[in-house]
Design brief:
Elements: E1 3-9, H1 14-26, H2 29-32, H3 44-64, E2 71-75, H4 81-93, E3 105-110, H5 113-120, H6 126-130, E4 134-138, E5 147-149, E6 152-154, E7 164-169, E8 178-183, E9 186-196, E10 212-220, H7 230-240, E11 245-250, H8 252-262, E12 268-274, E13 276-277, E14 289-291, E15 295-297, E16 299-300, H9 302-310, E17 314-317, E18 326-332, H10 344-354, H11 359-372, H12 378-387, H13 392-408, H14 415-428, H15 438-448, H16 452-466, H17 470-482, H18 486-499, H19 504-514, E19 533-535, H20 541-552, E20 554-558, H21 563-578, E21 589-592, E22 595-599, H22 609-612, H23 615-625, E23 630-639, H24 659-662, E24 669-675, E25 686-688, E26 706-708, E27 715-719, E28 724-726, E29 735-743, E30 760-762, H25 763-768, E31 781-783
Parallel strand pairs: 2-3, 2-7, 3-4, 7-12, 13-16, 19-20, 30-31
Antiparallel strand pairs: 1-9, 5-6, 8-9, 8-11, 9-10, 12-18, 14-15, 17-18, 20-27, 21-22, 22-23, 23-29, 24-27, 24-29, 25-26, 25-28
Helix pairs in contact: 3-4, 3-10, 11-13, 12-13, 13-15, 14-15, 15-16, 15-17, 16-17, 17-18, 18-19, 20-23
Length: about 775
Amino acid sequence: MPIVQKFTRFDESIIWSLLHRFYMEAGPAAWSDKIVPQRSTSNAFCADTYASIVASFFKELLAEGNSQPPLVIELGGGSGRFAWQFLNRLFNYHFSQEDPCPEFTYLLTDGSEKNIAGWKQKERFAPLVESGVLDFAQLLIEPDPVIRMQDGDVRPADLADRPVIIIANYLFDSIASNMLRIRDHQIEQVFVQTESTERKFLDRPITTFQSISERFESRPIEGDAPTGHPIIDTAIRDYARRSGDFHVVVPQICMEFIEKFLGRSTPLLLLAGDLAYTDPSQFELESPLIFDTYFAHYTNLHIFGEMFRAYGGDMQSQRHKDANFSCNLLSLPGKDEWAELSLTRTRETALALLKDFNPYDAHELTELIENTAGEMSIRQAMALIRFSKFDPDVAAACLPHLLFNIEQGEEAIDRPQIYETFMEAYRAFFPDGSESRLDSGIAQLFMRLGYHAQALQLMNHAIGEFGASAPRLFAMSLAYFNLGDQDKAEVLARKAVALDPHFAPAQRMIADKFEAPAAAVPVAAATSYAHVTVSNRDPKVTSKAAKLLADRGVVLIDDLLTADVVAELRSALKERVNNWQSSELGKPNNVGDKRFTVPIRLQAPFDNPGVYANPVLLETLQRVMGEKPVLHAFGSVTTYEGARMQHVHREHPLLFNTDAGNANVPCYATTILIPLIDLDEEAGGTQLWEGTHMTPKSAEWQGDPLVFYTKAGSALVFDYRTFHGGMPCRASHGRPLLYFTYTMPWFHDTLAFESHAAMGLSDAERMKVPEHHRDLFRFAKRIAA
């Protein structure tokens, strides 16, 4: 494996300069692109824990009465998300108009100028900056720190009369440290060699550390003062008295940085949450380094506690030790005129908060909530959002399922409670640059509850703070439409499409609400589809059909189902559609003007393997996809008389943002439409642009479409990426179609099924499926009965 750097003292390794370079180059993208995780600390529960401790500290200072306004310094502020959530919790939950928060300054710092520039662009921060509560500065973690503010440089000694609270989340684990090895009570210096699976790793931009690995060796140290710092050396000698063979991380630069604040007379708090050991019993010989999309290491917070105690302070840690996230309060009461300040109340608050349940527990439960939100009732979802302290990520995870449950009308709904809960979550939301539709999703929820004016007010606020986007403009359009202002609704819907031409909800709204019904398209030679048609009686039907689907993005397989099977399905379909509640799969999903998808259970006559696992169809798809697909969705597309032209669309956005990424991607999902009546101009058909499954993301459909008026029992099969749309329906009997979606096992369409499950079956229904076809249903929703 190519060597990046030969064995070098741990604290002089190239990994530290590479890490600094990574953050300087990446700036806010490190978090918006989800390269570096931040949710363990940048969540409302963790912010509230810290705010509770700081509020107790503020109240002790007020009682003492001789304090200048405290200064809260957040180190390595990153995306700015924690700062917003901390300030939101402190002002709105720990103080009030009757009990106002004392004057203080929150100084948000980082080493990267890109991050600071990003904070200055955040409208969410603007009122806090204008009021003097929030300020920004560049601050590097170094032994002689200088806070570089807009008005000039400040050193810790310049803050002699101000109590200071330092917040350091996942910071010390990213700052250069040394590492020693204790073996048989002897102290050894660790050296590290770094290697990479990529050749010329150093010649490329640092965008990930996943190719890096490490090797260690250690050499004895002469004497008993390996660092020259008396407090650190005393702690190391104490570690060496322990039996065993283990590594000890020594974060000397970070400790000397903090020590500059310990030398003042005013009180100091350090709130540190990190990948860290807080007890020497946790020390081990395993490598403390983490090479992933990011780089970090398990640091040593126990030695910080030793330093605070040497100055007369103390350390409170969470009772249940977890090196993946250790939350700690390190405190120093102060001296001289502060000698009487014991910080008893502050320390008691910290102990109570960290005794049994801690912020990392909340993070773990948040992930559990997100993975199980689909099974929650409305009351359970509300309880979990409140438990999370109205965390926006938890609210976003619960939102789709709340919308679904409200649509079903199966529970009594406390509308004011839902409204207040989601407004709390919106107030905690901070845009870090990553994609989020929380605000527009909340607006959709409010409209489902009948709060149209409140939804409009929310979208006005969101667009003012975060900027216009297709989902926000569409939500605002829908609110105006519901309030009776169709002119404004149309303008905003068209603006949404102008921003994102492929934003289907706005396209659908324009086609259904603001455009005149399209005239019927006559069948003409130009739209003949004979060249993409294969007869089911053709001995080479599967090979021909597979070639057409791969090359043209569409194939029509004539007479796939026999007339008697079609008749049986047709006679049962109307009852299934009308009695959709009995499926337990959800409410019909509106996919256009007077068009609905309705999921169908695998019950007679729809449990016929010749229908859902037709051998011709499966072999065709397996030839194109390269493996056996899964049945992702199964149901009816029911179009009623008077339905207008459907908007032209792809079934799903292309998988990647770049044309290079989408190039040469094989077929991974298909839609199959089987009419249960012969289609004609009255009933309407499907228009489709052949070959558009291979066009770039930015390309639109061009030229005349093929217009398919399919015979009953014939199957129109097309690639998910192919542009298409339903034709108008003028027939009194409507247009009943069966639809299937077959996909590669790794693809799951999360966008198409807003109000119902894609498909589902009970254990009894699954057992009736021939064993060799059961794998088709591996991702189907499981129904209790």
